[in-house]
Specification:
alpha/beta, Rossmann fold, seven-stranded parallel β-sheet, two-stranded parallel sheet, 10 helices, 13 strands, globular
C-alpha cells in the first residue's frame, strides 16, 4: 500500500517515518516553521513546506500525521484548519496524532495501559489531553492516537551529553521512566497505516521501564567513560521543566501494539537500543588522524 502522507510538524519522529515510507513509493509532504529544517526534511524523503503560511493543499492526501505541539488553547493545526479538515474527514484513510504518556499523570510507579483514564498532573499533559479531545471531536475522521514515551535515537540520547561532560545521575528512589527508540515509533506508525482501526489508542514504549540513572550508567560503560556522579533529586539543580518529569512515576504497558499491530520491537529495552547507537557512532567516526 502507498499513498500521500501530509505531516504537520515534520520533526524527529515524523522524519523517521518518512525514511521508512519513501522507499516504498509514498509521497510525503512535511511542514516546518523553521527554514533550517528544510534540508533535513528533504533528506528524509519528504517535500518540505513552510507552515504556518499559505493554507496547505490537501487535495489527494490519503493520510495525515500530526505531531505539532499543542498550546494552552489546544492544537494549532485545528486552530488554523479545523473547517477544512472536517470537510475532508471522509477523504482520509488514516489520521495519526502523536501524543504523550504524560497524559496518564502520576501512578507512583504502577502500571498503566490504554484503558487507564488520563489524569495529567503537568501542564504539557493537560494540553495533550485537550488536543486529543479536539481531534476526536471531528465526525468521521479515522483518528489513531499514539502516546509516546521518552524518545531517543540517532543524535538524541546520552552519548553526546556524556562526551561534553557535566552529566549527572539524578537519583530519586523508586523513580522509573518508559522510553522508545525513534525507529520503533516509525514501525508502529507504519503498521497502523497498513491496518487502520479508527478510534484506537496505542502506547508506544519499549518493554522495560527503568530508573534514568541506569540508562546513563550503561551509556557511560559502553563508551568507556567514568560513571557520572550521583546527585539526590532533592539536591539537584534542575530547570522547572526537567523537575516536572520526576513528578510523574509510572510504568507503561505496550501490549496493544504487539497484539493488534503485530509489532516486534527492534529495540525492546534501553540496552539493545544504546548498543545499536554506540555501534552506529563507532562506524560513523572518522579514522584516527583523518
Amino acid at each position: 500500500m502507498t499513498g500521500t502522507l501530509f505531516s504537520f510538524g515534520h520533526g524527529y519522529s515524523a522524519r523517521a517515518l518518512s525514511r521508512e515510507l519513501a522507499p516504498q513509493g509514498w509521497r510525503i509532504i512535511g511542514t516546518t516553521r523553521d527554514d533550517s529544517q528544510v534540508e533535513a526534511i528533504r533528506s528524509a524523503g519528504a517535500e518540505p513546506l513552510i507552515w504556518p503560511g499559505a493554507d496547505p493543499d490537501l487535495d489527494g492526501v490519503t493520510h495525515l500525521l500530526i505531531s505539532t505541539a499543542p498550546k494552552a488553547d489546544g492544537d494549532p493545526v485545528l486552530a488554523a484548519l479545523r473547517d477544512q479538515i472536517t470537510a475532508r474527514a471522509g477523504q482520509f484513510q488514516w489520521v495519526g496524532y502523536l501524543s504523550t504518556t504524560a497524559v496518564y499523570g502520576d501512578h507512583q510507579g504502577g502500571w498503566v495501559d490504554e484503558t487507564t483514564p488520563p489524569a495529567p498532573t503537568a501542564e504539557r499533559g493537560r494540553w495533550r489531553v485537550r488536543a486529543e479531545e479536539q481531534w476526536a471531536e471531528i465526525p468521521g475522521l479515522p483518528l489513531h492516537i499514539f502516546r509516546l514515551a521518552g524518545i531517543y535515537g540517532p543524535g538524541r540520547g546520552p552519548f553526546s551529553k556524556l562526551k561534553r561532560g557535566g552529566l549527572r545521575r539524578i537519583i530519586k528512589p523508586g523513580q522509573v521512566f518508559s522510553r522508545i527508540h525513534v525507529d520503533d515509533i516509525a514501525q508502529v506508525l507504519a503498521a497502523s497505516m497498513q491496518q487502520p482501526n479508527p478510534g484506537a489508542i496505542y502506547n508506544v514504549c519499549d518493554d522495560e521501564p527503568v530508573p534514568p540513572q541506569d540508562v546513563i550508567g550503561y551509556a557511560a560503560e559502553l563508551q568507556g567513560l567514568p560513571l557520572p556522579p550521583a546527585v539526590a533529586f532533592d539536591e539537584a539543580d534542575m530547570t522547572p521543566m526537567a523537575r516536572s518529569f520526576y513528578n510523574e512515576n509510572k510504568r507503561v504497558r505496550n501490549d496493544r501494539i504487539k497484539s493488534e499491530l503485530s509489532v516486534t520491537l527492534r529495540y525492546p529495552n534501553y540496552r539493545v537500543g544504546l548498543e545499536a547507537l554506540h555501534r552506529q557512532s563507532t562506524l560513523a567516526a572518522p579514522p584516527e588522524g583523518a
